[in-house]
Specification:
Layout (H helix, E strand, L loop, with lengths): L23 H7 L6 H52 L3 H15 L2 E4 L6 E3 L4 H14 L4 E6 L2 E10 L2 E7 L9 H41 L15 H49 L3 H24 L8 E4 H9 L8 E6 L5 E4 L1 H18 L8 E10 L2 E8 L20 H7 L7 H11 L3 E6 L5 E8 L5
Parallel strand pairs: 7-9
Antiparallel strand pairs: 1-5, 2-3, 3-4, 4-5, 6-8, 9-10, 10-12, 11-12
EC number: 2.7.13.3
Catalytic activity: ATP + protein L-histidine = ADP + protein N-phospho-L-histidine
Organism: Albidiferax ferrireducens (strain ATCC BAA-621 / DSM 15236 / T118)
Length: about 475
């Protein structure tokens, strides 16, 4: 059926221009978070690598934690036991000399432990606590491990000799351990390197798919020459896909070329005898009514051929700034004397779009022709058409609606299907329609980078909503 129709009805704004509404497929797409294949691959690889790093880190800490704690505690316990033995088996004079020698040569100082000494407990991390527990088990329950004594920092170990209590101070460098900050630095470094590797791998894996997606988009737009893929890649599966895709595009290009040649031949072979037939009819048929009917049939055949050629027109067009008001003025010039059609035009003078002027004129002519044929009011027999356009961001939104009877909701999704003609079209036009009018409009608007959506108007009648690219200001 050649008429205006659309997706579900949307409310009008103050300007009378109905906003374009996304179809079901587009709404389903918008409901999801957009995520490219590259990012999906990257996130999965990153998740795997981060999990592996954490598992490796935990395993390393588990395998190293206990042996390091025991080894460190044994070293400290051995130093304390040697110092204790030396003090026990030396007399008072030699004991002073021994303590002085240990301080000067080994960096170990032994001082008496006074009751009023104030000390800070050893580090509270798991490794330090494990070392303190191990020292206490080897040196006895009275052993104390501290970070500082009387505000003097160092590694302090409190031990007893009989009833006497002592502090042994040694350099913390003897306690060589990897701090939590060091683990964090290693973890961050490994994570950053792993994520960078994941990004490179994801990019390498998805590059052929990205190229295939780009080539497919060029084929969709009719550019077969720019859609060739590399057939010499090393990966056998990708090479096979590229070869198959290239052969497919070559076949599609040949089919498109053959179709254009065939339709051009149809135009040449049919329109010439039709012109002669019309001339002979006008000269030879005496009956005026019969002559008019035969001329109308010939004109209809010529129009059908023109519709075929319009629909089969090549897919690429050259876009340039076009004044929307001037195109409408040109299209409406031929309707100025029509008594069965009344048009209300609300299009700003300075509104320009990126389009092909001739193609855009064909679009508006088709829509006006459909409105005149199928949008007439049942009461008055006059087709009232409202045309409104306005700019919104980088787009120009155009709404053309009639005040006819509309169509059923079941027909809305099939009205732009080539050769589809609903019951209303067959009865209203007596078979004159071919079912290509709206299909031509949709295809032409798509070739110019716009969108075409049809809808039943909320207040009656049918509407065509068009979105075109807005021309940049000079």
């Amino acid at each position: 059926m050649n008429t205006f129709a659309d997706a579900p009805v949307t409310p009008q704004d103050n300007s009378g221009l109905m906003p374009l509404e996304a179809g079901p497929t587009e709404r389903r797409t918008r409901s999801r978070v957009p995520l490219s294949l590259f990012w999906r691959t990257f996130f999965l690889l990153a998740l795997l690598l981060v999990g592996s790093i954490l598992a490796w880190l935990q395993t390393l800490r588990a395998l190293e934690f206990e042996p390091r704690a025991i080894q460190t505690a044994q070293q400290m316990a051995s130093l304390v036991n040697l110092s204790r033995a030396a003090l026990i088996h030396s007399d008072a004079i030699n004991r002073v000399s021994l303590i002085k020698t240990m301080k000067e040569q080994e960096g170990v100082r032994i001082v008496p432990r006074e009751p009023g000494d104030v000390f800070e407990p050893f580090d509270t991390d798991a490794l330090s606590q494990r070392i303190a527990e191990e020292l206490q088990s080897k040196l006895g329950p009275g052993t104390v491990v501290a970070n500082s004594v009387n505000k003097e920092e160092g590694l302090w170990v409190g031990f007893t000799i009989d009833e006497d209590r002592y502090w042994m101070l040694t350099d913390r460098a003897r306690f060589n351990r990897t701090t939590g900050r060091t683990w964090l630095i290693w973890l961050m470094t490994a994570g950053a390197l792993s994520l960078a590797g994941a990004a490179l791998i994801a990019r390498f894996i998805n590059r052929p798919l990205k190229q295939l997606s780009f080539a497919a988009s060029r084929v969709r737009e009719g550019d077969f020459e720019a859609s060739s893929l590399d057939e010499g890649v090393a990966t056998s599966e990708i090479r096979a896909v590229n070869i198959g895709f290239n052969r497919m595009t070559q076949m599609l290009a040949k089919i498109e070329q053959d179709r254009a040649v065939m339709l051009a031949g149809i135009s040449h072979d049919l329109r010439t005898p039709l012109a002669r037939l019309r001339l002979e009819t006008e000269l030879s048929v005496v009956d005026v009514e019969a002559q008019a009917n035969m001329s109308a049939d010939i004109a209809q055949l010529d129009a059908i051929i023109g519709k075929f050629l319009d629909y089969a027109r090549p897919g690429s067009v050259d876009l340039s700034p076009v004044s929307l008001r001037e195109v409408f003025d040109t299209c409406l010039y031929s309707t100025r004397h029509r008594t069965d059609m009344r048009i209300s035009l609300d299009v700003p003078e300075d509104l320009t779009v990126l389009a092909d002027e001739v193609e855009l004129g064909r679009v508006f002519t088709n829509l006006l022709e459909n409105a005149a044929r199928y949008g007439k009011s049942v009461a008055t027999g006059v087709a009232v058409v409202d045309i409104v356009a306005k700019a919104r961001d980088q787009w120009v939104l155009l709404r053309l609606r009639d005040h006819g009877t509309g169509v059923s909701n079941e027909q809305l999704t099939t009205l732009t299907t080539p050769f589809y003609r609903g019951e209303t079209a067959r009865t209203a036009a007596n078979g004159a329609g071919l079912g290509l009018g709206l299909a031509i409009v949709e295809k032409t608007i798509s070739r110019m980078g716009g969108t075409f959506i049809l809808s039943n108007a909320s207040s009656g009648g049918l509407a065509a909503n068009i979105r075109l690219q807005r021309a940049p200001k000079a």
